């Protein structure tokens, strides 16, 4: 899950959310 990896990164948070939506 990229979301957990992005938890530490605030700037890539938006990118993580986009990936999560794409992964469904």
Q: Would you mind describing this structure in some detail?
A:
By secondary structure, the chain is mainly α. It has helices spanning 2-6, 13-23. It is elongated. The mean pLDDT is 61.
Rg from alpha-carbon coordinates? 8 Å
**Gap between N and C termini:** 11 Å
Output the number of helix runs: 2
Helix content: 55-70%
Q: Element order, helices and strands?
A: HH
Enumerate the spans where pLDDT stays under 50 for 5 or more consecutive residues.
Answer: none
Give me the secondary-structure category.
Answer: mainly alpha
Largest sheet: none
- What's the overall geometry? elongated
Strand coverage percent:
under 5%
Q: What's the mean pLDDT score?
A: 61
- Number of extended strands: 0
Features:
24 residues, mainly alpha, 2 helices, 67% helix, 0% strand, elongated
Give a summary of the structure in a few sentences:
The chain is mainly α and 24 residues long. The chain is built from 2 helices and no strands.
Fold topology:
Blueprint: H1 2-6, H2 13-23
């Amino acid at each position: 899950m990229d979301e957990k990896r992005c938890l530490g990164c605030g700037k890539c948070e938006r990118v993580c959310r986009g990936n999560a939506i794409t992964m469904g």
